[in-house]
Design goal:
The chain is an alpha+beta fold. The protein has four domains: 91 residues, eRF1 domain 2 (Nucleotidyltransferase, domain 5, 2-Layer Sandwich); 88 residues, Ribosomal Protein S5, domain 2, CATH 3.30.230; 119 residues, no CATH class; 72 residues, 3-Layer(aba) Sandwich (Hypothetical Protein Ychn, Chain: A). Helices cover 33% and strands 26% of the residues.
Length: 492
Amino acid sequence: MNQEDILINWSPQETRVAVVESGAVQELHVERIVERGLVGNIYLGKVARVLPGMQSAFIDIGLERAAFLHVADVWHPPALGETISQARNSHPQIPIEKQVFEGQALMVQVIKDPIGSKGARLSTQISLAGRFLVFLPQDNHVGVSQKIPLELREDLRSRLLEKIGDQGGGFILRTNGEDATDTELSEDIAYLRKTWARIKESSQRLPPESLLHLDLSLIQRVLRDLVSERTQTIRIDSHEQFDKLKAFGQEYMPGAVAKLQIYKGERPIFDLFGVDDEITRALGRRVDLKSGGYLIIDQTEALTTVDVNTGGFVGARNFEDTIFKTNLEAAQAIARQLRLRNLGGIIIVDFIDMATEAHQDQVLSEFRKLLARDRVKTMLGDFSQLGLLEMTRKRTRESLAHMLCEPCPSCEGKGIVKTPRSVAYDILREILREARQFNPREFRVVAAPKVIELLLDEEAQHLAALSEFIGKPISLQTESVLTQEQYDIVLL
């Protein structure tokens, strides 16, 4: 079993967490105070608009954009003896306009952060996550994570029922609760019930569009979600946050406290494993493989594509072996990059075409094994007829690139700009168009240095011919603040 270390770099404006395995960064988590995610937050919302055609409603929760509630996310408590899925399937016929109305106050929880132009997605089913349990206060279902072996589930469920008693509410035992002691389970139950009582009290006291419950900060979620038996150390570079995290851990996750360490080194903590260099590489399109091959990763609005290339890899005895070894190495790199960049949604991987089915099966098997280590849920299909591999990875927050970057002001996100020659020809056509409509004394072209340089040199003959044709002088002016595609034609 591979051991891992967790590094926490804290500053007043930003928290960064790196999960390092075998000396290589596997995951990066970034939380900024001004951009903190909303998933898990509970609000007292106000129904702003009901859209029967979309079977949805817009809910004001005090944010800039109204949040979105779909009919499928409106919670119906199960009848006696009914499971959660049965309850969900027994109410599909009730239209949303008969369940919510404009102006209604509604307790809602964010299940997906706002992404791009879309508002946050909501559910009326409230769930509170603890260390070992998830509490469903509106339900009475008691379940066990399906990732826990089948033969252990019934015993664990019986233990859980014993601890819950007759106070009501539903609980689901999380995967990491398999080995939890009775004391740990009881403490988790008490913490979750106390949290819910505080939320209920706030909902009766506060007006609509109020925040009732703020989900844990990234530093606290490290202890709740990232620490596992594979974790050797959790190192943090802030004394203040170390003390807070230790206190939080002693109350809720005492088993993780022993792994906490304060980092006192002179070099920044992220320099230990070159994490900042990894972040820089994770924002680029190209990922070089040790063998000489490389990946090209392109992220679009609809999906992410990963293209595998052999590059300069010629080390194997024959070309088929070269392809196979490159694909195996690429599978490892892709699985890591998905976690590192936090890529979600539909992902298409174009491995290099393999002639033998055995090689395809081996690459697919290796890729599945690597994806199984991902904390985020993934679904992987088989190779398509075109040799493409389709997969999905659950998306609950923005990718690393969307969090740290914005579209280039020159290309506006296209990734390319017109050549200076193309812009020069646009200018010549525009002057001709303007000359037919107006009669100025002179035309002055204001453009980027490279464009002006081209008009003065290689395109000087065409510029002179145009000036003669329209019968007006054309002067040129360089403006360094303009991007390559920007220009202005001034009529004097």
